[in-house]
User: Which sequence fits this backbone?
């Protein structure tokens, strides 16, 4: 998207285009602004992020079922919360594909995909720290 008619930031702080769009990036669209004004310099992949969101959704349902079946409440809580945040994060990336200038979509993606791995690691740590006596944790 290097159309010279688009509003964009150039090297050394130079700019080209509509000053209103430069001051408020949320008004930008792919037709009016260059990706230099978005959170990324690329559009997130729609097929890739959709596959990840679907896989994490399947894992979430599976972990919920297995956690209830085996009554591993602490492990299940951390795992399901981590997987739910992964799904939300990848949905945020899908929304960024359609609206790369929306900062709220960027925050949804960034916050959830930053916290989710910590919860997934915590769930594994909970399970690894257990001996045979903490089956109901």
Assistant:
């Amino acid at each position: 998207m290097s159309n010279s008619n688009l509003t964009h930031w150039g090297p050394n702080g130079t700019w080209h285009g509509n000053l209103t769009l430069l001051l408020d990036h949320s008004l930008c669209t792919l037709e009016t602004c260059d990706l230099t004004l978005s959170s990324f310099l690329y559009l997130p992949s729609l097929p890739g992020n959709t596959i990840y969101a679907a896989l994490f959704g399947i894992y979430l349902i599976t972990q919920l079922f297995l956690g209830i079946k085996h009554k591993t409440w602490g492990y299940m809580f951390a795992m399901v919360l981590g997987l739910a945040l992964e799904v939300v994060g990848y949905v945020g990336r899908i929304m960024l594909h359609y609206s790369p200038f929306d900062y709220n979509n960027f925050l949804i993606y960034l916050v959830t995909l930053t916290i989710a791995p910590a919860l997934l690691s915590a769930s594994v740590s909970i399970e690894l720290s257990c001996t045979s006596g903490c089956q109901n944790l």
